[in-house]
Amino acid sequence: MTGHRSAQSRFSPRTKCNGHRAIAASRCSMKASIVTAALVVVSAASGAIAQPLLSTEPTCDVTVPNGVVAGTTEPQRGSYGNALLSVGPFGLWAGGTVVFKPGGAGFVLPDGALSMKFGWMRAIPGKLNVSGRRIDSEAPALRSDIPCCYDATGFQASALIFPTPGCWEVSALIGDRQDSKLTFVTKVVQVRREARGLDGRPQR
């Protein structure tokens, strides 16, 4: 057995480098450095990919419909309210987001405010009072336009006027009946018309 290397020595990674001449050891060391550097790059890239993207847009915790329709025990999808007053008959906007876009529902007023129709169902007579505020940034108060001459109870049309897009808290009640008060949060989004040049292509 003299003069022969052991099986452990032949298959040891260290022996491959240390057991050869200086030039072979140098090449082996260089390969090891390259492999180590590659592993570091892959590890860093993997870590970058794994990190979640953080959104800087403020969140808006919109109200979820509860199906309640004022004046009836029959639930309705999309409706939100209490036994005396509810948003309906069409209820809240899908996803809690009121969308203003070219050719879509609603109006952009001369001062830039956004006006959208909202319907209400009333189980008791009295004047409908609506107020609101933007809760994710500073903005003028919500305005409303409530036309006359509807029946004392039942359906009442209105227009809610949002001075700016954003996250809005809207409150309503009939007369001074605090037990009729309801509050909901909705997000208002404005999609602006894309500017195009004389050739019809979008301008950047």
State the secondary-structure class: alpha+beta
CATH C-level name of the largest domain? Mainly Beta
Total count of helical runs of at least 4 residues: 3
Distance between the termini: 81 Å
How much helical structure, as a percent, in the residues? Answer: 10-25%
In total, the number of domains comes to 2
Low-pLDDT residue intervals, each spanning 5 or more residues: 1-55
In the CATH hierarchy, the architecture of the largest domain is: Sandwich
Order of helices and strands: HHHEEEEEEEEEE
The pLDDT mean sits at 79
How would you describe this structure to a colleague?
With 204 residues, the chain is an alpha+beta fold. The protein has 2 domains: 7-50; 80-190, Immunoglobulin-like (Sandwich), CATH 2.60.40. 19% of the residues lie in helices and 28% in strands. It contains 3 helices and 10 strands. The strands form 2 sheets. Strands 1, 2, 4, 5, 7 and 8 form a 6-stranded antiparallel beta sheet that branches. The longest helix has 29 residues, at 22-50. Residues 1-55 have low confidence and may be disordered.
Topology at a glance:
Blueprint: H1 7-10, H2 13-18, H3 22-50, E1 80-81, E2 85-87, E3 97-100, E4 107-108, E5 114-122, E6 128-134, E7 143-145, E8 154-162, E9 166-174, E10 182-190
Briefly summarize what is shown:
By secondary structure, the protein is of the alpha+beta class. 19% of the residues lie in helices and 28% in strands.
